[in-house]
Design a protein that fits this description.
single chain; alpha+beta; Aminopeptidase; 7-stranded mixed β-sheet; 7 strands; 37% strand; globular; binds coenzyme A; EC 2.3.1.-; YpeA/RimI_acetyltransf; Acyl_CoA_acyltransferase; GNAT_dom
């Protein structure tokens, strides 16, 4: 089930971030996103447990996908695609012109997902991300966007 998350989902959201992501959002950042007037946190549940979420922020003319995460045991079942579809709907309802995102240039799975949803590549920020693993170099950010129609 896909739904908008609220303040009382914070514990489950923070647990999912910590379990599934090495550089996870802090509890304070997640609480800020849940409370923000210009952010939406969408979650997807399986058997009553939160297994994925997306965070989207409203900017003056555009929206930005700030996080998208599915728990490792639930990947390749279409859940991120569902979350992304709901994010796109939200951005359309805000009457945003484009949905923007940044992704690690080596994150092939996420890039394939975004391309399949119609995102195009707008550019690259060299060395934007800190190394994913100690000892590796910094990683480029790929800047992507999806033009939006009004809802
Ligand atoms: C990226 C991520 C959100 C994808 O979640 P998911 O639920 O597995 O994605 P979906 O099942 O909806 O995938 C839809 C399509 O995207 C593409 N895709 C997704 N993951 C992929 C992978 N690892 N390799 C190649 N293609 C992939 C495929 O085209 C897939 O369709 P298919 O399964 O029919 O081939 C998930 O792997 C994740 O949480 N990764 C860690 C966090 C992250 O990188 N987030 C993105 C930050 S920008």
């Amino acid at each position: 089930m896909l739904r908008r998350l609220a303040a009382d989902d914070l514990a489950a959201l923070a647990a999912l971030e910590q379990q599934a992501q090495p550089r996870s959002w802090s509890r304070d950042m997640l609480a800020g996103a849940l409370a923000g007037a210009d952010t939406r946190v969408l979650g997807i549940e399986s058997q009553g447990r939160l297994v994925g979420h997306a965070i989207v922020a409203r900017l003056p003319f555009e929206a930005e996908l700030q996080a998208l995460l599915v728990a490792p045991g639930h990947r390749r079942q279409g859940l991120a695609g569902e979350l992304l579809g709901a994010v796109i709907e939200q951005a359309r309802c805000w009457e945003c012109e484009r949905l923007l995102l940044e992704v690690r240039a080596g994150n092939e799975g996420a890039i394939a997902l975004y391309r399949r949803a119609g995102f195009i590549e707008d550019g690259r920020r060299r060395g934007y991300y800190p190394p994913r693993v100690v000892g590796e170099g910094r990683e480029d950010a790929l800047l992507m966007s999806l033009p939006l129609d009004r809802c």
